[in-house]
Amino acid sequence: MSYNFQELNDDDLLDPFSLSNPSFTQAKFYGDWQKKLKRTVRRFVALRDKDEISTYFQLIKYPLPFGKSYLYTPYGPRIADTSKEFLLELKEKLLAIAKEENAIFVRLDFTPTISNKILSEIFTEAPAYTYHSAYFQPRTEWVLKLEPSIETLLKKMHKNTRYSIRVAETKNVTTEIVTNNFEQYFETFYILMQETATRNKFGLHPKEYYKNIFNSLSTIPNSYLSIARFGETILTINLIIIYGKVANYVFAGTSTKERDRMPASGALWRAICFAKEIGCTDFNFGAVTSEEDTNHSWDGLSLFKKRFGGEELKHSDFFDAVLSPFWYHLYNLRKRIRNNK
Question: How confident is the model over 70-86, as pLDDT tens digits?
Fold first, then answer.
């Protein structure tokens, strides 16, 4: 059986849904966001027997000290062929790309998940202490199925969340869905994001990253903002990306003011209801902490998400295709030292 790897150009259209229900991190528009940050992005497919797609993956290049770099495919490759024969050819191709990009390794985030036993025979299992990075996708997400009725969704959520939604309504918080002219809300959104990051102790991407996303939202069908106000003051802005039939709760900024009015709960519930209205089957809340996590700084935010109802979505362990063992060892050592501080 033969496999033909092909690199896609910017003009090449490919729907990775033919392989599985992909994350928007493998979409071309996500790659375009990265390019705006001057990152190299490359997309590939592998064809089996000339026309059957075996895999699709989008690689993003990140710099390291001493002029080195690594490549990462967030929630990818999207795999249809899990045979050892194909995985060996995939590794060979990835190492060739790494050599072209002067990358010391390629980090893989296989979707759907393949057993560690199979992958460890071919790739290098990444040490757990290297997982923590603003550039790597979370290992655990929280997803709510939207097939039940609104009444059932309300009934299944935590009583405190139902109460918070009612509080928002009774304390004159108004919510709205915005589907165009996104740019006019950007400066307010970014201020709210800064407040949220300070309050919940997490880092932000450069401001330009978020601005590029707002500027491109109109090109991503059905994506929207969910906004909560008290009077004329915007208290919460949620950014929702639609990909396939999944509504992705990507970013949210909430003011430190008027928090007793529960604007965050009101805005998020409005976002969920709208996702259901436009035919989404799932609402992905994004990252949450799991029982295995030792970093509890996100516990409060995770609890907020989980109380809307839903279930965990666990992703695979990271595996690496290593081109330069020496530099890979130094990368891991640096990560381990930082993790132990």
Answer: 999 999 998 888 889 99
300/45 Cα distance (integer angstroms)? 40
**Residue-wise pLDDT tens digits, 225-275:** 999 999 999 999 999 999 999 999 999 999 999 999 999 999 999 999 999
Structure tokens at 55: 């895999």
- pLDDT digit string, tens, across residues 166-178: 999 999 999 999 9
Q: Are residues 293 and 159 in the same domain?
A: yes
Q: Specify whether 110 is located in the same domain as 32.
A: yes
The answer to whether residues 239 and 224 belong to one domain is yes
Q: Provide the CB-side half-sphere exposure for 302 (13 A, CA).
A: 17
**Do 297 and 325 lie in a common domain?**
no
Phi, psi of 54 (to 5 degrees): -95, -30
Rounded CA-CA distance 165/154 in Å is 10
Same domain, 190 and 256: yes
Amino acid identity, position 228? A
CB 141 within 8 A of CB 285: yes
Torsion (CA) 204, 207, 213, 216 in degrees, nearest 10: 180
CA angle, corner 142, sides to 228 and 80, nearest 5?
125
- The reported pLDDT for the residue numbered 82 is 85
Here the CATH number for the domain that contains residue 157 is: 3.40.630.30
Let me know whether 173 and 300 are in one domain. Answer: yes
Alpha helices in the chain (DSSP H): 28-36, 84-100, 116-120, 150-156, 159-170, 186-200, 207-216, 263-277, 299-306, 325-339
Sign of CA dihedral 70, 75, 76, 82: positive
Domain ranges, residue 28 = 3-137+316-339
Q: How many domains does the chain have?
A: 2
Q: Are residues 112 and 49 in the same domain?
A: yes
Token match 């609890």: residue? 303
Eight-class DSSP state of 27: S
Tell me the C-alpha to C-alpha distance, in Å, between residue 16 and each of 26, 54, 119, 213, 310.
Answer: 8, 11, 22, 21, 25
Give the Å distances, CA to CA, from 131 to 17, 18, 142. Answer: 27, 29, 19
